[in-house]
């Protein structure tokens, strides 16, 4: 399997199998799909279909049992510095926000850039800029427990974008949000695509699937083929 | 936000625990500092007794519990004088006497007046005592100053009163804080006639000191020669024991402090598994996470070390007021002792935080993020 393909996608998942010993068995069953730069793709499917596992594999938080995952043409399993990949190539919006309660909003965004290329002032400026973009300029020094769910989710998006990654992964980014906040978060994801980045979100929230460029239906660890007239395939 | 700022922030958010850990470290550092100052000061005091004669080497009884309990006979001194290559061998009798409660250990040196100059004694005021005088004393210039006594004055030691006939200087502070007596009179007073404590030996120019030392020890198997500070243990077992107690106490303090740090670091690790997972997922490498845990422990340990050094000064001041140590314990703060105390604080931090730091660095980001 070559490391670089001629015309590389932002993300190329090819024939990926992920299995666990015991009852869970095979979670991803020869999964294949691609996401291009500037594209907003939603991976939907019922609970237990392997959506979150897919995000974890692409974010290099776990390894596939077999198959290939390439980000901008580079095979993930060939990378020696997965920490650098996580810092520079991919941003993850977790389902449960995973904000650090003892750091304020600004520090939560800034902390992921520590040890990167930016100097302290640049890191802070970038975090402030992102928080302004997600409409939290007044909450920069507020701690997560004092913020609403929507505000926390927006901080999580800002944090995922802090290192300016070309690929953004979002696990149920709008699931628990009201319509207005969901619209704002979707707008942020869409803005990342407009800026040339790629977004892969896993969700079964129709507000998100309706906004996507493409929707992939994951069932039993495989992408279900699109059926004629199905509105979710190409928005 | 900087890495150091994050360290300080993380320590501050668990400040009560940090304080308890810092106290454990401070106790360890206090012990290391106080034991270190006590040992080195006692060593300095003891070694300076040997340095008074400014000889090529000193001879004392082998394995005596304390240098002042050493006994050398007149025959042994004569035998040293007869050794080939020896220019002079001066026998001195050294004891301590009590002036008052604040000065329980006044150094008394008995010697022949003729030996004063070769022994390095310079009479700076008045005259020396006569060989057979029974109530004459020469005071060191420091003692004369401390007790406010001059030539012609009276000086009381225990039940006896002496007339000060001169003031001397040796350029060795412990000697200059004491007094000198006619040899026979001091021996008689302490009911040890004909007994010497030390012999200071000078060798002929170009003579081989090592060979002469070997020859004297061979001829007098009861005696040991001492040339350097490191050899002092051969003639003073107490100092060896104190030094051993210092090493043992310091190691114990190290483990007590490290256990405190480990307890805190482990608790912190188990509470922060998700946090560590998030940082790893966001691209922090293992080394940075390892550094975070070790750095936090170091931060707390340094605070503890600073407190421990402060408390250590207080402990040393208290020790120096103990009746048993008054007069013999003159605190000397060598830089090396502070270096050692800081080194121990560093050791406590690293030793205590090593296991939690390794655990944190080895965490799988996904497993850590899913940790409840």
Walkthrough of the structure:
The complex is a heterodimer of chains A (235) and B (372). With 235 residues, chain A is α/β, with parallel strands linked by helices. Chain A is 29% helix and 24% strand. A six-stranded mixed sheet of chain A has the order 6-7-8-3-9-10, with helices on both faces. Chain A has a four-stranded antiparallel sheet with strand order 2-1-4-5, covered by helices on one side. Chain B has 372 residues and is of the alpha+beta class. Chain B folds into two domains: 3-45 and 240-369, no CATH class; 57-226, no CATH class. In chain B, strands 1, 3, 4, 5, 6, 7, 8, 9, 11 and 12 form a ten-stranded mixed sheet that branches. A two-stranded antiparallel sheet of chain B has the order 2-10. In chain B, a hairpin with an 8-residue loop joins strand 3 (86-97) and strand 4. In chain B, helix 2 (15-51) packs across helix 11 (286-320) and helix 11 packs antiparallel against helix 12. Chain B starts with a helix and ends with a helix. The model of chain B has no long low-confidence stretch (mean pLDDT 89). Chains A and B meet through helix 2 and helix 4 of A and helix 1, helix 10 and helix 13 of B.
> What profile does the largest beta sheet of chain A have?
6 strands, mixed
**What is the percent of helical residues of chain B?**
40-55%
Number of strands of chain A: 10
Give the overall shape of chain A: globular
Class from secondary-structure proportions of chain B: alpha+beta
Pick out the low-confidence regions of chain B.
none
Strand content of chain A: 15-25%
């Amino acid at each position: 399997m070559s490391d670089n393909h001629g015309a590389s996608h932002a993300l190329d998942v090819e024939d990926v199998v992920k299995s666990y010993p015991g009852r869970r068995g095979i979670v991803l069953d020869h999964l294949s799909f691609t996401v291009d730069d500037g594209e907003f793709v939603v991976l939907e499917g019922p609970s237990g279909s392997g959506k979150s596992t897919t995000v974890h594999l692409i974010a290099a938080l776990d390894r596939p049992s077999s198959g290939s995952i390439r980000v901008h043409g580079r095979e993930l399993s060939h990378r020696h510095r997965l920490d650098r990949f996580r810092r520079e190539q991919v941003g993850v919006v977790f389902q449960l926000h995973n904000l650090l309660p003892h750091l304020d909003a600004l520090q939560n965004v800034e902390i992921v850039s520590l040890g990167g290329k930016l100097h302290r002032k640049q890191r802070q400026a970038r975090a402030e800029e992102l928080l302004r973009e997600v409409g939290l300029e007044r909450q920069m020094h507020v701690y997560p427990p004092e913020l609403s769910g929507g505000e926390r989710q927006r901080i999580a998006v800002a944090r995922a974008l802090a290192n300016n990654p070309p690929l953004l992964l979002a696990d149920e980014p709008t699931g628990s949000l009201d319509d207005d906040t969901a619209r704002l978060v979707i707008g942020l994801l869409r803005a990342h695509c407009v800026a040339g980045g790629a977004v892969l979100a896993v969700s079964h929230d129709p507000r998100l699937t309706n906004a996507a460029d493409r929707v992939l239906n994951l069932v039993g660890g495989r992408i279900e083929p699109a059926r004629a007239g199905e509105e979710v395939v190409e928005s | 936000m900087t890495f150091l700022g994050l360290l300080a922030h993380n320590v501050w958010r668990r400040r009560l625990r940090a304080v308890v850990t810092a106290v454990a470290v401070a106790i360890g550092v206090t012990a290391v500092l106080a034991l270190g100052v006590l040992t080195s000061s006692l060593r300095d005091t003891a070694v300076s007794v040997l340095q008074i004669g400014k000889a090529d080497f000193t001879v004392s009884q082998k394995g005596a519990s304390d240098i002042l309990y050493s006994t050398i006979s007149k025959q042994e001194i004569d035998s040293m004088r007869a050794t080939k290559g020896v220019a002079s061998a001066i026998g001195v009798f050294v004891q301590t006497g009590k002036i008052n409660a604040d000065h329980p250990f006044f150094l008394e040196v008995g010697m022949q007046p003729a030996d004063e100059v070769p022994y390095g004694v310079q009479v700076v005021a008045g005259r020396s005592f006569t060989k057979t005088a029974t109530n004459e004393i020469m005071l060191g210039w420091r003692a004369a100053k401390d007790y406010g006594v001059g030539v012609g004055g009276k000086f009381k030691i225990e039940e006896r009163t002496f007339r000060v006939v001169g003031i001397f200087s040796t350029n060795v502070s412990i000697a200059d804080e004491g007094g000198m007596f006619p040899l026979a009179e001091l021996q008689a007073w302490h009911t040890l006639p004909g007994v010497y404590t030390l012999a200071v030996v000078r060798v002929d120019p170009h003579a081989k000191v090592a060979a002469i030392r070997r020859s004297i020890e061979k001829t007098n198997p009861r005696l040991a020669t001492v040339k350097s500070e490191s050899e002092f243990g051969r003639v003073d077992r107490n100092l060896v024991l104190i030094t051993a107690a210092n090493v043992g106490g310091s190691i114990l303090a190290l483990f007590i402090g490290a256990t405190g740090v480990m307890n805190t670091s482990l608790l912190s690790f188990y509470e922060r598994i998700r946090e560590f997972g998030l940082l790893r997922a966001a691209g922090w490498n293992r080394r940075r996470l390892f550094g975070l845990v070790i750095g936090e422990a170091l931060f707390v340990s340094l605070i503890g070390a600073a407190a421990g050094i402060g408390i250590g000064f207080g402990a040393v001041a208290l020790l120096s007021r103990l009746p048993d140590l008054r007069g013999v314990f003159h605190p000397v703060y060598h830089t090396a002792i502070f270096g050692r105390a800081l080194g121990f604080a560093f050791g406590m931090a690293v030793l205590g935080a090593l296991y939690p730091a390794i655990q944190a660095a080895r965490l799988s980001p996904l497993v850590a993020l899913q940790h409840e």
